[in-house]
Amino acid sequence: MTNAVPLQLRSERLLLRAPSAALAPAVNGFQMRNLAHFAPWDPPYAADYFEPEGVSARLDKAEQDFAAGNAFGFWFSRLEKPAELIGKVNVTQVSRGPFQSASLGYAIDAQAQGQGLMHEALQTVIALMFAPPVRLHRLQAAVRPENRASLAVMKRLGFAHEGLSRRYLFIAGAWRDHETFALINPDWGLDEAP
């Protein structure tokens, strides 16, 4: 099933690529460039997170998870600047059987905010996740209540607010509340069995 999932996607302005070791320098550049930008939103990093070996190891694991259908990550760049990564979309914790669901995470370069690029990237990935061969029924996302930009993205994409998860993740030295959202695949028939 998962070997038919494309390793590259294109949207109007973006090139989205599945994880591979070849992206390691660009991934590290993206991470280092946005270290302060992501600090309020990201959990603590492992000691080797920014070391070349750590970046390569994470990409290798992400590539294996993609091939196995356990997770689907995409790094994206502008079409005209493919060497410079400006964001990522991660679909993780893929659960099959009666659940057919996954968790959605995303991040965008500080200099690329406010241009609709994250919305475009998420639309592209969600379309893939809801279509064959992946065909998930549901995507869930968790957003910090103070992250207005991310809350706006959820609303614009049609995610339904499901509630508040108190003390959800340990970030920036404290347990942080998150709003939880979900998007249901509108093409998944009620009479279909997983």
TrEMBL record:
It is an enzyme of class 2 (transferase). It comes from the Bacteria. Gene3D superfamilies: 3.40.630.30. The keyword Cytoplasm does not apply. GO terms for molecular function: acyltransferase activity. Keywords: Acyltransferase, Transferase. Its EC number is 2.3.1.-. Residues 14-182 form the N-acetyltransferase domain. Belongs to the acetyltransferase family. RimJ subfamily. This is GNAT family N-acetyltransferase.
